[in-house]
User: What shape does this take?
Amino acid sequence: MTSKTAKNNQDDLSRRVEAFRTVFPEFVIKDASGALRLDVERLKETFPISEKSEFIWPGKQKAVLESRLETAKKLRPWREESRDWDKTRNAYIEGDNLDFLKIARADLAGKVDLIYIDPPYNTGSETFVYRDDFSNSKQDVSSNWASMFYSRLLLARDFLKDSGAIFVSIDDHEYANAVKILDEAFGRENYVATIVWEMKREAKGIPPKSMCVSNHEYILCYSKNGSYRFIGDFRDVEDGFSNPDFDPRGPWKRQYLQRFGQGFREKTIVDPVTGRAYTFETPYTQEKLNRWVAEGRVIFPTPPYKYPARKEFFCEYANPYKPIVTSWGLFSTKVGSEKLKSLFDGKKVFDYSKPIDLLTTLLRRALRSDGLVMDFFAGSGTLGHAVMALNAEDGGSRQFILAQTPEPCGKKSVAYKLGYRDISAICRERLRRAGDLLLTEAADQNLDVGFRAYRIE
Ligand SMILES: C[S@@+](CC[C@H](N)C(=O)[O-])C[C@H]1O[C@@H](n2cnc3c(N)ncnc32)[C@H](O)[C@@H]1O
Assistant: This one.
């Protein structure tokens, strides 16, 4: 840190303490040099932190400080690396995401609908194109990773709209810590869901000692302030609805009326055609059951059915979407890698990109068709590709902002041999190639496949 930056940070801190004093004068004291500082002891006494609820690791305070230190760095437009600078609404930033988050916070605060990140998983692997080992020694295997993750999350929250949410990809290595750190940064009350998806169906290779291989990953979802809602899944007429009796009200679905062993009172309804009475335990009122019989929406049983059921009509769903479940099934990483390879003439330029289908599914289920999404661990740029691909498919106008550090490619890597010196270059090239491909197939030639590129200086 230069002495100028240190002075700026000190000035910033003094300003904040001064502002704090206007609201809470009792918690601000003067130190020996006459400078104002927070009375931390008094704060702790007044607002005791339950030991159970705070997750502590070595370096946590430093991570908080790091997120608060201002940066003197700036975003510089990088026109020659951009595509369609004058008309695109997408952005790409090359640089450390901590700097990016600090620089962009003022402009983008409260403007982002959805943040998706796929941080390094801290697997300890040194073979990836990008660094995936945050340990200095065996003991602090997680603390560096935790600090790296926490400082970014503290800043990221401000970018979200009040209705927004963050989605974080993670696997077993840091799942438990990621949950605790997200609880700290976003608040447990803002936890929404843990999505599970499978990367493969079979365990190949040498079996581990446990004889159990994990084949799934997680996407953790936290809302900014509790008001986030998934869009859901489009309700399809074929989704269990049919019209075998040509009911003029259209396709319907069979829903049972009885619930056994749940403590509901017995009610009786009578088949108006046969005069036969059916008695069963049900949560519905007698009045409602009689109305349904009169409206001809009760199906009286013919073998093999024993109890009456009710017709639920497709046309009566006011909401065209149905809730999703958290288990999303298979999105083969192998197929995902092949798709990325095919964009680069069959060459493997990046390890462990997310399958594009996983991210288009996420966008479809989690975001309006015109939302702004941000990924500050962009890697090979799968999220940007997914945004463009989904817009091409459904005519949406989603926008993306990606940030990726120019992490050098190993000299022995395929990427390096192909001329890509860092991951940022791979990401931009992937966006260009994906854009070209989408335009060859797109009905709308105005599809936004551009991005304004910036560098942090
Ligand atoms: C797991 S990869 C993301 C892969 C991406 N989802 C994809 O599908 O290609 C994590 C990425 O974060 C990048 N990264 C790590 N630390 C970073 C930082 N401080 N700032 C920006 N990017 C960073 C790494 O270089 C790596 O490319």
Notes: The domain at 75-234+321-456 is CATH 3.40.50.150 (Rossmann fold). The mean pLDDT is 91.
